[in-house]
Amino acid sequence: MSDITVIGLNGEAQEVSFEPGDSLMEVLRDAGYEEIIAMCGGCCSCATCHVHIENQADFELPPIEEDEELLVSMADNYQADASRLSCQLTLNDEQTGLRVQIIETD
Description:
Blueprint: E1 2-7, E2 13-18, H1 24-30, E3 50-53, H2 66-73, E4 83-85, E5 99-102
């Protein structure tokens, strides 16, 4: 198993384990982050799994695709260098140590 660091809305950091091939959205939901609503079930159509990811380039994340970019750019708390949809990220060993910030959505 590998770990990522998740910073909750309360500012507290928690180490969360994942298996390579897990969706970041599912890892966050399984860890009890109820703020990750994921209304569309991970189909990249709602932005209710929007998170901020620190230093994306350091963790070999896939580039953001057009549909995802459109959704996050219209979402609350959008940050061009940090916003991603957690449903669009499949974790693998290269993401060990990734820092994910849960953000407040309206």
